[in-house]
Amino acid sequence: MTEPVPIRGLWCAMLTPLGADGDLDHARLAAHARGLLAQGVDGVVPFGTTGEGPSFSVAERCAGLETLLRAGIAPDRLLAATGATAITDAVALTRHALQSGCPRCLILPPFFWKGLSDEAVFRYYANLIEAVGDARLRVYLYHIPQPSGVAIRPRVVARLSAAYPGIIAGVKDSGGDFEHTAELLRQGARLSILAGHEPHLPRLMRAGGAGTICGIANLFPDLAAALLKPDPEPDDEARIRSFLDIVLRYPFVPAFKAIRAAQTGDPAWLVPRPPLRPLSPAERESLFAALQGAGFGIAAETGRRRAEV
Protein backbone atom coordinates (compact mmCIF):
# COMPACT_ATOMS: atom_id res chain seq x y z
CA MET A 1 0.00 0.00 0.00
CA THR A 2 1.55 3.30 -1.08
CA GLU A 3 1.49 6.35 1.17
CA PRO A 4 -1.79 8.15 0.38
CA VAL A 5 -1.50 11.81 -0.58
CA PRO A 6 -3.98 14.24 1.01
CA ILE A 7 -7.30 14.49 -0.78
CA ARG A 8 -7.72 17.53 -3.01
CA GLY A 9 -10.07 18.65 -5.76
CA LEU A 10 -13.52 17.36 -6.65
CA TRP A 11 -14.68 14.19 -4.90
CA CYS A 12 -18.20 12.85 -5.29
CA ALA A 13 -20.33 11.61 -2.41
CA MET A 14 -21.87 8.83 -4.49
CA LEU A 15 -25.54 7.97 -4.68
CA THR A 16 -26.23 4.29 -4.00
CA PRO A 17 -28.39 2.45 -6.56
CA LEU A 18 -30.78 -0.28 -5.45
CA GLY A 19 -32.28 -3.21 -7.31
CA ALA A 20 -35.94 -4.13 -7.54
CA ASP A 21 -35.50 -6.24 -4.39
CA GLY A 22 -34.22 -3.25 -2.42
CA ASP A 23 -30.69 -4.64 -2.24
CA LEU A 24 -27.55 -2.86 -3.38
CA ASP A 25 -27.22 -2.91 -7.18
CA HIS A 26 -23.55 -3.69 -7.62
CA ALA A 27 -23.44 -3.32 -11.40
CA ARG A 28 -25.01 0.14 -11.34
CA LEU A 29 -22.77 1.19 -8.44
CA ALA A 30 -19.64 0.29 -10.41
CA ALA A 31 -20.92 1.88 -13.60
CA HIS A 32 -21.80 5.08 -11.77
CA ALA A 33 -18.31 5.33 -10.23
CA ARG A 34 -16.63 4.74 -13.58
CA GLY A 35 -18.86 7.34 -15.20
CA LEU A 36 -18.04 9.95 -12.57
CA LEU A 37 -14.31 9.43 -12.95
CA ALA A 38 -14.66 9.63 -16.74
CA GLN A 39 -16.32 13.04 -16.28
CA GLY A 40 -13.28 14.37 -14.44
CA VAL A 41 -14.21 13.74 -10.82
CA ASP A 42 -11.01 13.17 -8.83
CA GLY A 43 -12.40 10.46 -6.56
CA VAL A 44 -15.55 8.87 -5.18
CA VAL A 45 -16.91 8.32 -1.70
CA PRO A 46 -19.32 5.40 -1.31
CA PHE A 47 -21.82 5.16 1.57
CA GLY A 48 -21.64 8.70 2.88
CA THR A 49 -24.72 10.78 3.63
CA THR A 50 -25.74 11.17 -0.02
CA GLY A 51 -25.09 7.43 -0.38
CA GLU A 52 -27.40 6.61 2.58
CA GLY A 53 -24.50 4.90 4.33
CA PRO A 54 -26.10 4.49 7.78
CA SER A 55 -29.00 2.63 6.13
CA PHE A 56 -26.69 -0.17 4.94
CA SER A 57 -25.22 -2.99 6.98
CA VAL A 58 -21.52 -3.58 7.55
CA ALA A 59 -21.65 -6.55 5.15
CA GLU A 60 -23.36 -4.50 2.42
CA ARG A 61 -20.87 -1.66 2.72
CA CYS A 62 -17.90 -4.03 2.63
CA ALA A 63 -19.34 -5.76 -0.43
CA GLY A 64 -19.93 -2.42 -2.14
CA LEU A 65 -16.33 -1.33 -1.63
CA GLU A 66 -15.11 -4.67 -2.97
CA THR A 67 -17.33 -4.24 -6.03
CA LEU A 68 -15.76 -0.87 -6.81
CA LEU A 69 -12.25 -2.28 -6.49
CA ARG A 70 -13.08 -5.28 -8.70
CA ALA A 71 -14.52 -2.85 -11.25
CA GLY A 72 -11.11 -1.23 -11.58
CA ILE A 73 -11.60 1.83 -9.37
CA ALA A 74 -8.11 2.47 -8.02
CA PRO A 75 -7.80 2.61 -4.23
CA ASP A 76 -6.30 6.10 -4.45
CA ARG A 77 -9.56 7.29 -6.07
CA LEU A 78 -11.64 5.97 -3.15
CA LEU A 79 -12.49 7.39 0.26
CA ALA A 80 -14.41 4.77 2.24
CA ALA A 81 -17.13 6.13 4.52
CA THR A 82 -16.82 3.91 7.59
CA GLY A 83 -18.80 5.73 10.28
CA ALA A 84 -21.42 3.79 12.26
CA THR A 85 -23.44 4.17 15.45
CA ALA A 86 -21.65 1.20 17.06
CA ILE A 87 -17.92 1.74 17.41
CA THR A 88 -17.36 -1.98 16.77
CA ASP A 89 -19.05 -1.59 13.37
CA ALA A 90 -16.97 1.50 12.58
CA VAL A 91 -13.81 -0.41 13.50
CA ALA A 92 -14.85 -3.38 11.35
CA LEU A 93 -15.59 -1.14 8.34
CA THR A 94 -12.33 0.76 8.77
CA ARG A 95 -10.26 -2.41 9.10
CA HIS A 96 -11.93 -3.81 6.00
CA ALA A 97 -11.11 -0.67 4.03
CA LEU A 98 -7.45 -0.91 5.07
CA GLN A 99 -7.28 -4.61 4.27
CA SER A 100 -8.75 -3.81 0.84
CA GLY A 101 -5.98 -1.30 0.14
CA CYS A 102 -8.02 1.83 0.94
CA PRO A 103 -6.38 3.59 3.89
CA ARG A 104 -8.44 6.78 3.60
CA CYS A 105 -11.64 6.64 5.64
CA LEU A 106 -14.36 9.25 6.17
CA ILE A 107 -15.68 8.72 9.68
CA LEU A 108 -18.76 10.22 11.29
CA PRO A 109 -18.89 10.87 15.02
CA PRO A 110 -21.26 8.62 16.99
CA PHE A 111 -24.65 9.87 15.86
CA PHE A 112 -27.30 8.32 18.08
CA TRP A 113 -26.38 9.84 21.45
CA LYS A 114 -26.82 13.61 21.39
CA GLY A 115 -25.34 16.31 23.61
CA LEU A 116 -21.90 14.70 23.64
CA SER A 117 -19.06 16.67 25.17
CA ASP A 118 -15.89 17.49 23.25
CA GLU A 119 -14.11 14.97 25.46
CA ALA A 120 -16.57 12.24 24.44
CA VAL A 121 -16.07 13.01 20.74
CA PHE A 122 -12.29 13.00 21.15
CA ARG A 123 -12.34 9.70 23.07
CA TYR A 124 -14.59 8.08 20.45
CA TYR A 125 -12.14 8.79 17.65
CA ALA A 126 -9.14 7.96 19.84
CA ASN A 127 -10.64 4.61 20.81
CA LEU A 128 -11.48 3.84 17.18
CA ILE A 129 -7.99 4.68 15.92
CA GLU A 130 -6.35 2.64 18.66
CA ALA A 131 -8.70 -0.31 18.08
CA VAL A 132 -7.89 -0.33 14.36
CA GLY A 133 -4.20 -0.19 15.32
CA ASP A 134 -2.78 0.50 11.87
CA ALA A 135 -0.41 3.41 11.19
CA ARG A 136 -1.41 3.38 7.52
CA LEU A 137 -4.89 4.68 8.41
CA ARG A 138 -5.81 8.17 7.19
CA VAL A 139 -8.91 9.55 8.92
CA TYR A 140 -11.08 12.28 7.44
CA LEU A 141 -13.34 13.57 10.20
CA TYR A 142 -16.93 14.13 9.06
CA HIS A 143 -18.60 17.21 10.53
CA ILE A 144 -22.28 17.21 9.54
CA PRO A 145 -24.20 18.20 12.67
CA GLN A 146 -27.56 18.72 10.92
CA PRO A 147 -28.36 14.96 10.67
CA SER A 148 -25.74 13.60 13.06
CA GLY A 149 -26.58 15.94 15.93
CA VAL A 150 -22.90 15.81 16.98
CA ALA A 151 -20.44 18.59 16.17
CA ILE A 152 -16.72 18.06 15.71
CA ARG A 153 -15.39 21.37 16.95
CA PRO A 154 -12.10 22.81 15.66
CA ARG A 155 -10.45 22.39 19.08
CA VAL A 156 -11.29 18.66 18.97
CA VAL A 157 -9.85 18.42 15.46
CA ALA A 158 -6.66 20.16 16.66
CA ARG A 159 -6.39 17.85 19.66
CA LEU A 160 -6.88 14.71 17.55
CA SER A 161 -4.37 15.94 14.98
CA ALA A 162 -1.78 16.51 17.71
CA ALA A 163 -2.46 13.11 19.29
CA TYR A 164 -2.47 11.20 15.99
CA PRO A 165 -0.25 13.13 13.56
CA GLY A 166 -0.46 11.78 10.04
CA ILE A 167 -3.43 9.56 10.85
CA ILE A 168 -5.79 12.52 11.12
CA ALA A 169 -5.61 13.67 7.50
CA GLY A 170 -8.51 16.05 6.99
CA VAL A 171 -12.05 17.18 7.66
CA LYS A 172 -15.16 17.16 5.53
CA ASP A 173 -17.09 20.18 6.80
CA SER A 174 -20.74 19.97 5.81
CA GLY A 175 -22.04 22.19 8.60
CA GLY A 176 -22.78 25.17 6.36
CA ASP A 177 -21.13 27.59 8.82
CA PHE A 178 -18.09 29.17 7.20
CA GLU A 179 -16.81 30.53 10.51
CA HIS A 180 -16.40 26.91 11.62
CA THR A 181 -14.60 26.13 8.35
CA ALA A 182 -12.34 29.17 8.71
CA GLU A 183 -11.37 28.10 12.22
CA LEU A 184 -10.51 24.63 10.92
CA LEU A 185 -8.25 26.26 8.33
CA ARG A 186 -6.55 28.33 11.03
CA GLN A 187 -6.00 25.40 13.38
CA GLY A 188 -5.36 22.57 10.93
CA ALA A 189 -2.58 23.79 8.67
CA ARG A 190 -1.47 20.23 7.89
CA LEU A 191 -4.97 18.94 7.19
CA SER A 192 -7.08 18.77 4.02
CA ILE A 193 -10.14 20.87 4.74
CA LEU A 194 -12.91 19.92 2.33
CA ALA A 195 -16.31 21.57 1.96
CA GLY A 196 -19.51 19.58 1.86
CA HIS A 197 -21.58 22.77 1.43
CA GLU A 198 -20.92 23.70 -2.18
CA PRO A 199 -21.68 27.47 -2.00
CA HIS A 200 -18.70 27.85 0.35
CA LEU A 201 -16.23 26.43 -2.16
CA PRO A 202 -14.91 29.72 -3.62
CA ARG A 203 -14.23 31.16 -0.14
CA LEU A 204 -12.69 27.89 0.99
CA MET A 205 -10.31 27.71 -1.97
CA ARG A 206 -9.26 31.34 -1.58
CA ALA A 207 -8.50 30.62 2.09
CA GLY A 208 -6.31 27.61 1.31
CA GLY A 209 -8.80 24.77 1.45
CA ALA A 210 -8.32 21.48 -0.38
CA GLY A 211 -11.57 21.03 -2.30
CA THR A 212 -14.91 19.34 -1.86
CA ILE A 213 -16.69 16.07 -1.23
CA CYS A 214 -20.14 16.84 -2.57
CA GLY A 215 -23.36 15.25 -3.74
CA ILE A 216 -24.01 17.65 -6.62
CA ALA A 217 -21.13 15.97 -8.48
CA ASN A 218 -23.43 12.97 -9.02
CA LEU A 219 -25.58 15.14 -11.27
CA PHE A 220 -23.62 18.19 -12.45
CA PRO A 221 -19.90 17.59 -11.86
CA ASP A 222 -18.89 20.48 -14.14
CA LEU A 223 -20.91 22.88 -12.02
CA ALA A 224 -19.13 21.82 -8.84
CA ALA A 225 -15.73 21.79 -10.55
CA ALA A 226 -16.21 25.38 -11.73
CA LEU A 227 -16.23 26.57 -8.12
CA LEU A 228 -12.74 25.13 -7.54
CA LYS A 229 -11.18 27.57 -10.01
CA PRO A 230 -9.16 30.47 -8.57
CA ASP A 231 -11.70 32.96 -9.92
CA PRO A 232 -15.06 31.27 -10.47
CA GLU A 233 -17.65 33.07 -12.52
CA PRO A 234 -20.38 34.78 -10.45
CA ASP A 235 -22.94 32.92 -12.56
CA ASP A 236 -21.51 29.58 -11.41
CA GLU A 237 -21.90 30.55 -7.75
CA ALA A 238 -25.44 31.74 -8.40
CA ARG A 239 -26.32 28.49 -10.21
CA ILE A 240 -25.17 26.33 -7.30
CA ARG A 241 -27.28 28.36 -4.90
CA SER A 242 -30.25 28.23 -7.26
CA PHE A 243 -29.95 24.46 -7.59
CA LEU A 244 -29.81 23.96 -3.83
CA ASP A 245 -32.69 26.37 -3.22
CA ILE A 246 -34.84 24.19 -5.47
CA VAL A 247 -33.68 20.73 -4.43
CA LEU A 248 -33.77 21.37 -0.69
CA ARG A 249 -37.52 21.98 -0.87
CA TYR A 250 -37.66 18.17 -0.97
CA PRO A 251 -35.92 15.38 0.97
CA PHE A 252 -32.56 15.76 -0.73
CA VAL A 253 -31.53 12.12 -1.30
CA PRO A 254 -34.85 11.14 -2.99
CA ALA A 255 -34.63 14.40 -4.99
CA PHE A 256 -31.08 13.65 -6.14
CA LYS A 257 -32.13 10.12 -7.08
CA ALA A 258 -35.13 11.45 -9.04
CA ILE A 259 -32.83 13.76 -11.01
CA ARG A 260 -30.39 10.93 -11.66
CA ALA A 261 -33.26 8.73 -12.88
CA ALA A 262 -34.38 11.47 -15.26
CA GLN A 263 -30.86 12.13 -16.54
CA THR A 264 -30.24 8.46 -17.28
CA GLY A 265 -33.76 7.40 -18.24
CA ASP A 266 -33.35 4.62 -15.66
CA PRO A 267 -36.20 4.45 -13.12
CA ALA A 268 -34.21 2.08 -10.90
CA TRP A 269 -32.40 5.17 -9.61
CA LEU A 270 -35.60 6.49 -8.04
CA VAL A 271 -35.61 4.17 -5.05
CA PRO A 272 -33.92 5.03 -1.73
CA ARG A 273 -33.43 2.64 1.18
CA PRO A 274 -36.18 2.85 3.86
CA PRO A 275 -37.00 4.86 5.89
CA LEU A 276 -36.55 7.30 2.96
CA ARG A 277 -39.28 7.21 0.33
CA PRO A 278 -39.16 8.10 -3.37
CA LEU A 279 -40.61 11.41 -4.48
CA SER A 280 -44.17 11.08 -5.71
CA PRO A 281 -44.89 11.66 -9.42
CA ALA A 282 -46.34 15.08 -8.55
CA GLU A 283 -43.23 16.00 -6.54
CA ARG A 284 -40.96 14.91 -9.37
CA GLU A 285 -42.92 16.94 -11.89
CA SER A 286 -42.73 20.01 -9.65
CA LEU A 287 -39.00 19.49 -9.06
CA PHE A 288 -38.19 19.06 -12.75
CA ALA A 289 -40.29 22.09 -13.71
CA ALA A 290 -38.43 24.27 -11.19
CA LEU A 291 -35.05 23.00 -12.41
CA GLN A 292 -35.98 23.58 -16.02
CA GLY A 293 -37.12 27.09 -15.14
CA ALA A 294 -33.73 27.74 -13.52
CA GLY A 295 -31.92 26.57 -16.65
CA PHE A 296 -30.84 23.11 -15.57
CA GLY A 297 -32.21 21.39 -18.65
CA ILE A 298 -34.44 18.79 -17.02
CA ALA A 299 -37.88 19.18 -18.59
CA ALA A 300 -40.68 18.26 -16.20
CA GLU A 301 -42.63 16.20 -18.72
CA THR A 302 -39.52 14.46 -20.04
CA GLY A 303 -38.33 13.76 -16.53
CA ARG A 304 -41.72 12.44 -15.55
CA ARG A 305 -41.87 10.04 -18.48
CA ARG A 306 -38.33 8.78 -17.99
CA ALA A 307 -38.57 8.33 -14.26
CA GLU A 308 -42.05 6.82 -14.14
CA VAL A 309 -42.56 3.95 -11.73
UniProtKB/TrEMBL annotation:
UniProt-annotated binding residues for pyruvate: 50, 213
InterPro entries, alphabetized: Aldolase_TIM, DapA-like, Schiff_base-form_aldolases_CS
Keyword Magnesium listed: no
PROSITE patterns: DHDPS_1 (PS00665)
Gene3D superfamilies: Aldolase class I (3.20.20.70)
Active site positions: 142 (proton donor/acceptor), 172 (schiff-base intermediate with substrate)
Family, as annotated: Belongs to the DapA family.
The protein's name: Dihydrodipicolinate synthase/N-acetylneuraminate lyase
Organism: Methylocaldum marinum
